Amino acid sequence: MKIVVLKFGGTSVGTTKKIKKIAEIIADYKKKNYKVIVISSAMSGVTNELIKKSCEISDNFSDSEYDVLVSSGEQIACSLIAGRLIHKGYKSRSWLSWQVPITTLGEHKNSRINQINKNNIIKYLRKGGIPIITGFQGVNNENRITTIGRGGSDASAIMVAKFFKADRCIIYTDVEGVYTTDPNKLKYAKKIKVISYEEMLEMASLGAKVMQPVSIQDARLNRIDIEVKSSFIKKSGTLITKRTNIINNKIITGISSTQNDSKVSLIGVKDKPGVAASIFKPLSKNSINVDMVVQNISANGKETDLTFTIKTEDLNKTKKIIQENKNISYRKLIFERGVSKISIIGVGMITTPGVTFRMFQTLANKKINIQVISTSEIKISVLIDKKSTKKAIIALHKEFKLDKKNEHKTF
Amino acid sequence: MKIVVLKFGGTSVGTTKKIKKIAEIIADYKKKNYKVIVISSAMSGVTNELIKKSCEISDNFSDSEYDVLVSSGEQIACSLIAGRLIHKGYKSRSWLSWQVPITTLGEHKNSRINQINKNNIIKYLRKGGIPIITGFQGVNNENRITTIGRGGSDASAIMVAKFFKADRCIIYTDVEGVYTTDPNKLKYAKKIKVISYEEMLEMASLGAKVMQPVSIQDARLNRIDIEVKSSFIKKSGTLITKRTNIINNKIITGISSTQNDSKVSLIGVKDKPGVAASIFKPLSKNSINVDMVVQNISANGKETDLTFTIKTEDLNKTKKIIQENKNISYRKLIFERGVSKISIIGVGMITTPGVTFRMFQTLANKKINIQVISTSEIKISVLIDKKSTKKAIIALHKEFKLDKKNEHKTF
Known about the structure:
CATH topology of the largest domain in chain A: Carbamate kinase
CATH architecture of the largest domain in chain A: 3-Layer(aba) Sandwich
Mean pLDDT of chain A: 90
Strand order of the largest sheet of chain A: 3-6-2-1-9-11-12-10
Oligomer: homodimer
Number of strands of chain A: 19
Largest interface: A-B, 38 and 38 residues
Number of helices of chain A: 12
Helix content of chain A: 25-40%
Shape of chain A: globular
Strand content of chain A: 25-35%
Number of domains of chain A: 2
Largest sheet of chain A: 8 strands, mixed
């Protein structure tokens, strides 16, 4: 069976008009003789409306009833999609998670899919039906509805693709795919045709909010090809696949940048075990998200300089926590607002020497000062002055030839 | 086990504020050591909103998906009620129809409850839990959600009361109970404390839209005491029970009246088999609801006069249908707008002679002309001029002493 899993996000099914449109997309795959399995999120806005009601009922609304409440959102969307396909003459029906069933483990509001019973769906596919399965939910061993904590409907789609050994999992959303850099910041950013899981993970965690990182990781572990594309524009999207599937002449796949960051430096911190923990523990406790952390090797073996970045909105809170913490000793504390983190990402850099040099040289040519550097296997991040962000992205985009196209087979 | 079934209608759970209020009502029964089973409708407005969406998707929306769609309304209401009870420190949870399970027979949108598995709920009640069960729905033998065609959540409540042998089934709604006559028409109408199933059936079909007639009939067949009361005002309501439970000195329990009726008389119709059918068949086909029908015995054995009432809004359509129908032969056709049907209802009239006479005399004293008379075992209906409606109700209300109170044991 040539199976394709189509997942539609909240904005893709946000109105009945949009549902009619996505029914066309589903029908197109059916016409191409695919066995189509659809996973849907709730119509955008519905889940928030339900959560609002739960807050009115209790400031500590029961987790198990929360799951019953919000899972109705996907139920509504799936019945409308199936209803539209039936209207168009197709054999289709909604499959609620307890009807499949999709069983979960873990606690309410935060469960994960453990098992998907394939029998009913396979039988239904064989009869030519198009099953529309509720995303974001399952039933636990007590036969109660649970919702998936991380990844939501994306995670459902990946797991369905895994259990049914689908040829591809297509994530329909409100963007056309993943871009070489934020198209809102750089108008000639290019859509990436193909990207590896690892690069996508780096892109996602850096702000390319196309897919939940946890779902990309699931896809990576199960070697499931994902295509991210738009529900609204008929164009191929971005294929997320394993590295070896990519015939890619590019060293760098994408450039990401953060905004509204601030830099905190502690100069002359005592260089002994546990010092970093004593600084970051109180920040974590206060829900302050620390991003880049750089600690230099101490020159004299006794003292070190520690630098990290946080969101600027957390700056005052961070200041207060550090200054009031008697356990942290340092000689000098420096804060700097308005820094920006620029990252270049690409599996190509593993096999290509000199990428770091090229990045630094490009920035130097533009007289952009690099304040902090942090690297991983497939990513190089630098901290620069916020004012130079756009200039840096333009220069790097050109240097690494991201305006050139690469291709992949589209469904 | 002393079990009480509480059913809340759409307006009773119409807002989260109202849900908080009905959680108090539920808690009160729990404090009185009842085992409480709650049945809830969808929040008012929710079902209509969902139906509207289905109409946008298709002008012929699939029945099976319709059931999936609208059943989410009760799911939402039940989770919010359970969530509120949990917030208040009670053990409670929603039970969706497939979790109980409540199994149904018949087609989608029009199924009926066949079986209720008691085991899970009994176990849960024994542990001190308050189950909140979705009304209006069940699952069929294909494990698909179905909705109950007639009676809706009322029917669910009656069936749950039957299967669990509940002491009483309390229908919470937006009225205080059943009145001796429409309180909007007569300000000193009295709430009826106790009424028989049979009387209630006559009242209901005559416009006292407190409960669905089909559910009253179910309750009657299963001998389940029903109390209809308000969710918003803490007062005893109306008890609907079997005749033998009523120690009632009244002959008449209530007076009902219709509005906007018109009278159609066919004079000199050929008196032969099938003549009535040939008149009413085309009316029925055109969805015209015929109410009172009176046919006099023909004097000469050849001709008869036929009179019936319809809603005034259907008058023009009715005229056209009769005049254009070549199969109906009559000498004269008379239409009269602005008639009103007044009915007195009471099981007491079975054992009390002269009720008909008293009714006619009362109207005659007020110089109200009776145009048509129709009687059943526990009801006498007359057709009068619409202008005299209020005068007639006041006179009959007084004549049959409906302003006097009767009592029943309230929970």
